[in-house]
Amino acid sequence: MSRSSAVITLDQSDLQAWAAGFAGEIIQPADPAYADARKVWNESIQKDPALLLRPTGSSDVIAALAYARDRGLEVAVRAGGHSIAGFSTTEGGMVIDLSRLKGIRVDTQHRRAHVQAGVLWKELDRETQAFGLAVTGGLISSTGVAGFTLGGGIGWLQRKHGLACDNLVSADVVTVDGSLVHASEKENSDLLWALRGGGGNFGIVTSFEFELHPVGPEVMSGLTFYPGESASDVLAFFRDLQPRASRDLMLAAVLRLAPPAPFLPEDVHGKPVIVLAGMHAGPLDQASRELAPLKDIAKPIADVMVPRPYVQMQTLLDASWQPGFQNYWKAEYLSALPDGAIQVLVDHLATITSPLSDFKIPFLGGAISDVPEEGSAYGHRDAPFILNINARWAESSDADRHIAWTRDLWREMQPYSAGGTYTNFTSVDDQDRTPDSYGEVKYKRLSELKRRFDPENVLHLNQNIRP
Length: 467
Ligand SMILES: Cc1cc2nc3c(=O)[nH]c(=O)nc-3n(C[C@H](O)[C@H](O)[C@H](O)COP(=O)(O)OP(=O)(O)OC[C@H]3O[C@@H](n4cnc5c(N)ncnc54)[C@H](O)[C@@H]3O)c2cc1C
Description:
By secondary structure, the protein is α+β, with helices and mostly antiparallel strands. The chain has 15 helices and 19 strands. Bound molecules: flavin-adenine dinucleotide. Flavin-adenine dinucleotide (FAD) binds next to strand 3, helix 5 and strand 10.
């Protein structure tokens, strides 16, 4: 693929004249920084933008949008760059890369965090935990706060404190007509409703305000590994525990081939395992009591579920989720996990195609289901589980078999679907499922808001809501 055709069309004297009013960084294909700047987390996505702009504030974002609109450039918006579908880059268009917007202000008195759009979860967790506070954040610390929150935001604290988007109190949004709009319960409340799960469809958020909660600093958390042969028993236990688990407890069942981790016996490396990964956000003695039955389901291969700092738990899984690999993901909310579903999962553990892939089922419920289904854009709040299939491999030439395995597992789990998918986990071929993520009534309301805030669908590189 040629990496140069689209870019020469930019009029350099026009760009130079415009740049006088732009305070941020401008990166073009000829610049040394371009090779790194064009990359996104998912190596399967290879696109060459004509221009990357790194604004220093809302006025730069307004200027960038105007530049793109006036010259007919496609716009991609990037915060942490973790979109699996590759929405945060464009072939021949402009990337508005918000990574220089790193400001965080923690208001301990009101338990609020004011967070600029380029902040990553590891940065926000560190800052809030300095004061014993936190908001539901990603399981992997390199994820961007912005894209994660706008799509929903599933994390270890969600059953106690709701999704990230449920904790979004207000936002500053640059709309495509160049206005700066504040969205809160009092001002533009319908826009806030849409930002809580409706993704990047309505404007570019430059700053987020979150509600914070006392957390930790030590929480019982980590991983318990069981042999693959115990997968049915572990999944049945996990299923039966969900309706009676406390809101402090968030567990995910993870099925994969054992990684070569130092705490796992060498003879297990590369063999099928099932892992219960989790965190208990309550007092340590309560956590010990509630987690004690995990040791009796089957004999664990390794048990590293121990008291540890919350910030450490937030980075515990990072090593397996580095950038630079090929990825194809699919997700489905599940209405239940009957024995038939467990059998499908166990069968696909036996045929998993890559030592880097996994599929996982986190608990949902708790505080997520407290918000009425129509209370925010985010959908399927009643689902007790979600299935995330994360195929991951090294060589691009290998894609077909990993993608086929992913689609096969997803297809066989359809009888247990709650009727939709989570937009933050979808791949590029899932666009037609966006309406199902919200349901008919909410999708209609979201379309009306899209018509109001972005009638020409300038911001279409996302799980697109059509105006
Ligand atoms: C390794 C990994 C781990 C993950 N773990 C979790 C997890 O634990 N829980 C979970 O819920 N999800 C998880 N995800 C999915 C994640 O929530 C989405 O990929 C999300 O889009 C990432 O946000 P980002 O800012 O990094 O992405 P980007 O690629 O930068 O942005 C994705 C999209 O969000 C929109 N967007 C981003 N910033 C803005 C903004 N400021 N204003 C308007 N629109 C914007 C744009 O449409 C953009 O294309 C994970 C993804 C990866 C790759």
